[in-house]
Amino acid sequence: MQALWNWKKMTVLGGLIIIALMPVFTRSPYIRHLFSVFFIWAIVVSNWNLIMGYAGIWSMANVAFLVIGCYSSALLSMHSGLPPAICILLSGLITMLIATLFIGLPSLRLRGIYIALLSMIFANMLPDILKIFRYSTGGSMGLPEVPPLYEGITTLQSYYINFAAFIVLLLLVYAIIHSRSGLAFMALRDAHEMATALGISEYREKLKVFALSSFSTGIAGGLYVHYTGIASPDLLYISTFLMAIAMMVVGGMGRFPGGVLGAALFVFGGEWLRMFGLVRLTIMGGLICIFILFFPGGIMELVERLDTRIIQWRSKGLAPPVVE
Amino acid sequence: MSSYFVIDLVNTLLSGLLIGSLYAIMALGLTIIQGVVRIFNFAHGGMSILGGYLTFMFLSGAGFNLIVSMILSCLLMFVFGLILYRGAIVFLVKKPNWEIASVIFLLGLGILMENLILQVFGARVKEIPVFFEDAFEFGFVRINHHDVVLIVFVMVFVLGLNLFFSRTWLGRSIRAVAQDIQGARVVGVNANRTLGFAFGLASAVTGLAGILLASKYYLTPQVGWEWMFKGFIIVVFGGLGTITGAIFAGLVMGLVEALITFYGSQSWVWPAWFVIFLVILLVKPEGLFGRKSASY
User: Which domains does chain B have, with CATH numbers?
Assistant: First the structure.
């Protein structure tokens, strides 16, 4: 039974307050941009965590969902007269449809690793599909003039809008995890036969998790594309995909803050590491290997162990026993 | 039918045969690893380009000739596979979530390798020279000497590998371990050593495939991933754990790709691979020649 206030919740609250007040302390558009990128990736990785960590489905296509969201929102806003905000919502729906159709439905019949392969190849195929329809999608050059959310938007306003989306969508993920569906996902992941014997419909839950996470990811994509004003297939490069996986693994698969933590680490840390040039990708690869070998639960696992020790220390008033 | 159509068709089919045999040998390394430890080697891309880059290094850096460089690279790749097995795979397969853990580990290793290679060799395209210049001409059909040599080499190699697996003690023990590891131990096979050897073998074959592909096309740090994904599809298409299946599937996919590239456009290649993959998974997931018992 966790106390109402514990150090983890205080950290989260403190972090949120700092983020909210951050623009007061610095007017640098670079830092605001960095935070916005962090918000978007936190959303994407947290939703990916939902599919991979909580539901145990090894879909590798979430970055592809992000890009589908980007392009659908961009194309919608450029060719129909709809305001970008509506386009973002619609792009979430479109992404949900495509994801469920191409990955979700086949995954009903496939075992873990095959879903991974299928989704990877789906993600690999996407740039070529964009090239085929290059007349509308701009092929490898992308679409350079995506309208912003509304005319005259400033970096300050974008910052808060992205922050708001970050909070709303993460709350959504949190709600899903703690709902009956969340329990169903985890049950299917951990004890498959038992869960289905208890009446949990694997088909429904799998489709549900794909639909929900791809919807959120698509919205993140729409937000991103209207924020940056460019839709480009660069996001589909293997390096972005690997960075997203690294975010999830290092942050902590199957633990809610893992996605946010991983995103923070790699967005901000990545910027810091940029001064080392190409070495940062090498470091990322190395981190993935080390973490999966020794800390499969990511940093969150370390946090949890630390938390356990603190609780033991407090309740006994003695030095914590060596637990193993 | 106009003669141009026939000429083009024949040329395309020959191209397809060539690409197909290269894909086939690319898939061999994957098949071996999949067969013995049931893991899809996500570091395959990195390993194949490593083979290519090592050869390049020996060729241009040390000035050895082509054959020596290839042999040296394969030996080094063999050692690499051994070390990979002993150093990491042994630990990974003992974990409860070994499937996804090994996938992610190998993926990370793949990035690591790609970027280390990028650091060491730079991003510019490297070339491994063709084995032979010039081409045969049979009437209207033109085949490069190099292509013929490649096809023949692959066929001979595959035959040799088949003989290895069916006639030699080591080959048979690898198959035994792939079928039933405890049973293999009972009949006296040292499973760990055999697995290590199998890994080394797969790694060497992969490196070799990388060299061949690099000599036909080109070599950059990124190109390994494409080869790897296609390799996965071929392995599943052909049937898990069967070498014949991988060869056959590789040839088929090569032909398909050549036809699509010629009569369609380059961009339709990946969507076609995806669709074929999807269809195979849904219709016959154990692959063309796969064991029905393989759980999918």
Answer: 3-283 (1.10.3470)
